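Much of our argument rests on the idea that a fold can be written as discrete symbols. Part of our work consisted of pairing the sequence of a single chain with a tokenised description of its backbone. No coordinates are needed to read the tokens, only the vocabulary itself. The record that follows shows the chain in one-letter code together with its fold in token form.
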Amino acid sequence: ILEFRQPGHSYTRYSNPTHAVLERALADLEGGEAAMATASGMAAIHGAMLSLVRAGDEVLAPAALYGGTLGMLATVMPRYDIGYRLVRSGDSEAVVAAMGPRTRLVWLETIANPTTEMPDIAAIVEAAKTRGIPVVVDNTFASPYLCNPLTLGVELVIHSLTKYIGGHSDLIGGAIIGSAQRV
């Protein structure tokens, strides 16, 4: 059964009917093909980021950035030789100008935590796509009720389920949502 030759759920670490329902609902809410539930929002952020960058790459991120994400960029990613630069995400021209030769990921927050600065996601995605750079959006603060970044062309959407989706502090969870190929 653990060789995955038979259909169905075998071991909760690999698949779980409750997780499957949650993942389907999140994908539907965001307009994605697939979702992956994670143990926390930071697990989703870490997993998504490391799936898209490698040693020598750089992540371009908002200057107004959730502290956990900033901490990971500043302390964990250097261990993998992954750099980062911060830019005001509300200034699309500044974001585009900051995309350099090592930039392999543009990280945005729909609504920045804690400043509430909001980027022009569509404009940034358009510029990033011409350079072959994926854009990932943390949609935790907006939630799928207010914004669906996948419809604007982003590669992946991240959520801390601990906030609005889960009722704020009732649970710990995270999610990565996108195409079936990416998730």
Q: What stands out?
A: The chain is about 30% helix and 20% strand. Strands lie at 34-38, 58-62, 83-87, 103-109, 135-138, 156-160, 174-178. The first strand starts at residue 34 and ends at 38.
